[in-house]
Specification:
The protein has 498 residues and is an alpha/beta fold. 35% of the residues lie in helices and 20% in strands. The longest helix has 26 residues, at 167-192. The relative contact order is 0.11. The structure holds ligand BES, zinc ion (ZN) and manganese (II) ion.
Length: 498
């Protein structure tokens, strides 16, 4: 879908469909009122008769509205005016896009972007509109012999801006929204790909392709390189797999050479069978999503590059399968991580932290300003927070605060969980410096505590996205989270958010 910005009145749009909002209790929005005036009260009449009551999520398509230049008018219910917030705004956009897709309209002008949303400016409305529109129309049909073609009718969407002096800001936000939406689509595609296609080598090739496209630095470390470095924790995960592991390192330079980089690390387990600590069979197919951390880091980096943020960034993606082969790690095995700390592997299904701990140590060489790792790390986090919030852990409170704010702004929210020392006790091992699991309780916290032991040398945050990176059930699929959160954090770090 193509997007553009325009300031102008709705009755003068020549597009195939003009989209305006109606509040509950029949209050027309400004754009709807302008149309109504041009149409001699035609819309007001329809609303008064009760055919469009303004309930949130409802739509009504009108043809040949007199006094207008467009073929159709789509009325979108917005709910009660006093309750109109960010959630209602996004819902209205989604309802509009869904309804537009069911019409024959190839292009539309949407005036919902003119509506005031508490605490948010025009830039937010434009970004969120683009993100919601692309999210609502996303399909993963690569492996379908018959594509669902008629749903692709809408090609162009013009976003209305009320005041001309908002145009410049809106144009910049449009680029941001498109960059973030593209990053999310990439993350969804990679997440949805089956593990027989999306293996570590495939992830590396997609990273390389992205680097070529966007002018990023890209380096792929092979097993032998990792052996030389001593990344034995990471390698212990790959031992059971036929597919060789890869360590993908990408770089984006948008700031001066001596500005310390922000480092994003993404868990890239392309399939998590559990290894020798084999997972139960039910829903095991969903473990193809265990590389969504990696996918979201790629998506966020791509977004930052397309937004041309003045930041220096690195992405580190440890990629491997977790399989139960003859050479797989056994429960009880002890490995020496890149940091020198030894780990007793009590459960081979707690493999994410083994990859990530070596990636965290590897990050030290970049002398990072901040390190954020993103991982589908624990079922416990999904149990605690469900699909609403990602788990957030940080060794600096101001970093946690910034990420919470970015998540709120992006509506890709996180909830701060503790890293208190009391929990570290649970990782004690009689034989090594630590065990890789902390037992039954507080699983998301003990996993984060484990990682914190490898993140002492920099400001660090960890996002557990096990509950938020994909949806189960009949509409199962990757969500593209937390690309929007990361992108908004980077926007904020680059001074691009108010
Ligand atoms: N990839 C899983 C976490 C996961 C589970 C994500 C369910 C999404 C849905 C991770 O590698 C894992 O298996 N974690 C274990 C840790 C346990 C062995 C301490 C878990 O959560 O059960
Ligand atoms: Zn896993
Ligand atoms: Mn696992």
């Amino acid at each position: 879908m193509e997007f553009s910005i325009k300031s102008g009145s709705p009755e003068k749009q020549r597009s195939a469909c003009v989209v305006v909002g109606v509040f509950e209790s029949r209050r027309l929005t400004l754009a709807a009122e302008l149309l109504d005036k041009a149409a001699g009260g035609y819309i007001g009449d329809i609303v008064r008769r009760g055919d469009m009551e303004g309930k949130s999520g409802t739509t009504l398509l009108l043809h040949k509205v007199p006094g207008t230049l467009c073929d159709r008018v789509l009325l979108v219910g917005l709910g009660k005016e006093k309750d109109f917030r960010e959630k209602e705004f996004t819902q209205a956009i989604r309802a509009a896009i869904k309804a537009l897709h069911e019409t024959g309209a190839l292009d539309a002008s949407i005036f919902l972007t003119e509506l005031a949303v508490k605490k948010h400016d025009i830039a937010w409305r434009i970004r969120q509109t683009v993100i919601a529109a692309r999210d609502a129309t996303y399909r993963f049909e690569q492996f379908k012999s018959k594509k669902d073609e008629n749903r692709r009718s809408l090609r162009r969407l013009t976003l209305g801006v009320e005041r001309r002096n908002e145009l410049a800001q809106a144009e910049e936000a449009l680029i941001q929204g498109q960059a973030i939406a593209a990053g999310m689509a990439l993350a969804k595609d990679l997440g949805n790909l089956p593990a027989n296609v999306c293996n570590p080598a495939y992830l590396a090739s997609r990273a390389q392709a992205l680097a070529d496209e966007l002018g990023l630095e890209c380096e792929i470390l092979e097993r032998a390189d990792m052996e030389k470095l001593g990344m034995n924790a990471l390698l212990s995960v790959a031992n059971g797999a036929r597919q060789p592991p890869k360590l993908i390192v990408l770089g984006y330079r948008g700031a001066r050479i001596n500005d310390k980089p922000l480092v994003l690390i993404g868990k890239g387990i392309t399939f998590d069978s559990g290894g020798i600590s084999l997972k139960p069979g039910a829903d095991m197919d969903e473990m193809k999503y265990d590389m969504c951390g990696a996918a979201s880091v790629l998506g966020a980096l791509a977004a930052a590059a397309r937004m041309k943020l003045s930041l220096n960034l690195k992405a580190i993606i440890p990629a491997s399968e977790n399989m139960p082969g003859g050479n797989a790690s056994r429960p009880g095995d002890i490995v020496t991580s890149l940091s020198g700390q030894t780990i007793e592997i009590l459960n081979t299904d707690a493999e994410g932290r083994l990859l990530l701990c070596d990636a965290l140590s590897y990050a030290e060489r970049f002398d990072p300003d901040t390190v954020i790792d993103v991982a589908t790390l624990t079922g416990a986090c999904a149990v605690a927070l469900g699909g609403v919030a990602s788990g957030l852990f940080a060794n600096r409170d101001n970093l946690a605060r910034d990420l919470i704010a970015a998540g709120d702004e992006a509506h890709d929210r996180v909830w701060h969980l503790p890293l208190w020392d009391d929990y570290q006790e649970l990782l004690k091992s009689p034989f090594a410096d630590m065990a890789n699991v902390g037992g039954r309780w507080a699983g998301a916290v003990t996993a984060a505590c484990f990682l914190s032991r490898f993140a002492k040398k920099f400001d660090w945050a960890h996002l557990d996205i096990a509950g938020t990176a994909w949806k189960s059930g009949k509409d199962k699929g990757a969500t593209g989270r937390p690309v929007a959160l990361l992108a908004h954090y980077l926007l904020q770090r680059a001074g691009k958010l108010n």
